[in-house]
Amino acid sequence: MTIASIRRGYQVIKTVLHYGLDEIIANKKTPWYFSLLRNCFFWLRNQHKDKPAAERLKLAMQELGPVYIKLGQMLSTRRDLLNDEWANELSMLQDRVPPFDSALARQAIEAELKAPIESLFDNFDETPLASASISQVHTANLKENGAEVVLKVLRPNVEAQVQADLQLMCQAADLLEKLLGEGNRLRPAEVIDDYRTTILGELNLNLEALNAVKLRNNFLDSDALYVPYVYEDYCYPRLMVMERVYGIPVSDVEALKAQGTNLKLLAERGVELFFTQVFRDNFFHADMHPGNIFISREHPDNPFYIGMDCGIMGTLSDVDKRYLAENFLAFFNRDYQRIAQLYIESGWVSENTDVLAFEQAVKVVCEPMFNKPLDEISFGHVLLELFRTARQFDIVVQPQLVLLEKTLLYIEGLGRQLYPQLDLWSTAKPFLEQWMSEQVGPKAIFDKVKMKSPYWAEKLPEFPELIYDNLKVGRKLLGTQQQMLDKYLKFQHKAHKSNYLLITSAVLLICGTLLLNQDATLWPSYICITSGIVLWLTGWRSRPKNRKF
């Protein structure tokens, strides 16, 4: 452990104790050594006793900096783990970070390019366009064609800082898991492990560039989403160069109204984009908060989204997609029994769950929704309620579904902000029904056969040879099995013969011994004993030597 990590560890402990976070754990859960360690820092006292515990946690994370702020933001989506009070407080965390020195930014960019900035770019702006916890953005013009671009560069030493904080988080999570004991619902070690994967992915701008290229290609012909062009030749682990785009922040509704944007169409397209990314492409933007989404200034009557920051992307397995789509449709059709069965079949809740009890719990959550007008129902809220209900039945946390849930909440929240009358159900249901029809039924079978037919056509000439080889292997296998059977029967025959002789010898020896004690002549006992010894030696020598067949 380095001096820097020790210093950072003390800073974290100081912040935790100043906000009284040690008091959150019940006294009965704390072992004697925990109290001893706490008393070692007797000069650090709770300075915020007047605030609720959830608010204190939010303030502590805000003070500890970007890595902890992002952790809090992620935890705010874990309604399957946290109650509303905690989740709502953490959802208010904001990632506001001052820019770092432009000289350091220039130095980092040139280190990646292995060339002076002026040799590749013109009009490099020393003043950053934007600054976040992980990176900073500067504008320039590409020298080869004059195109306006932005250069996104990681903060100096951010990797070391993140790794140090992650190490401390892992150690704290392990300690907390021991304190909470087995069967605790929070599962801190699992949460931190999920977070580690997410945050480390954001530290590789090469990976973000590849994600952006893939997302852009998925929507090249779309009039709903535009992803800026990425200049892959200028992308490195700590530097990413992409097209500069101009748009209106999606949260600036007044500016959108001022230019006459069709907000109803824009909101509906946001919903369609979500379901298209999830079910058509199985590659969805999982960090669609307002800071990463802009709206085009062109064609306000036919507006499109501009997607930024592809550092966090989500995917689902085919099984998860199928179960998720069926879950949505069952909910639309008020089939609560099917919802309960799907949760159990998919492994999202324990297979030992009482289906009838779970069905009733789901019905209690969903049925009141149908008594309201559709535009007053929050689909994201319903999803959260379902997670909360499943939590009572020992839900098995699915990290990929948590990303999906967070994205859906963002999308619906933005849609309702743009167009409060947004009916997410009527927009989503036709899409899901069409997708399901493409996955099952005659058309789906035909499409799968059509997709596989080139592969089968390529392998068809090999079929006769494969059949002949399999027949040879089968015949050889039958011969081998017959040999093994013969060996086994021979082994059994020898074993039976040996056992018979040994048992007979034992009987003769016992009879001979009994006859010795009689007053009659001795020769019958001698014959029995001698025969018993001979049979014993014969049986012993005839035993099978091994059990290898």
From TrEMBL:
Keywords: ATP-binding, Cell inner membrane, Cell membrane, Kinase, Membrane, Nucleotide-binding, Transferase, Transmembrane, Transmembrane helix, Ubiquinone, Ubiquinone biosynthesis. Pfam families: ABC1. Pathway: Cofactor biosynthesis; ubiquinone biosynthesis [regulation]. The keyword Metal-binding does not apply. It is found in: Cell membrane. ATP binds at L129, A130, S131, A132, S133, I134, S135, Q136, V137, K152. The chain crosses the membrane at residues 499-516, 522-540. The active site is at D287 (proton acceptor). It comes from the Bacteria. Residues 93-342 form the ABC1 atypical kinase-like domain. InterPro entries: ABC1_dom (IPR004147), Kinase-like_dom_sf (IPR011009), UbiB (IPR010232), UbiB_bact (IPR045308), UbiB_kinase (IPR050154). It is an enzyme of class 2 (transferase). Its EC number is 2.7.-.-. It is a multi-pass membrane protein. Is probably a protein kinase regulator of UbiI activity which is involved in aerobic coenzyme Q (ubiquinone) biosynthesis. PANTHER family: CHAPERONE-ACTIVITY OF BC1 COMPLEX CABC1 -RELATED, PROTEIN ACTIVITY OF BC1 COMPLEX KINASE 7, CHLOROPLASTIC. Belongs to the ABC1 family. UbiB subfamily. NCBIfam families: PRK04750.1, UbiB. This is Probable protein kinase UbiB. It comes from Shewanella japonica.
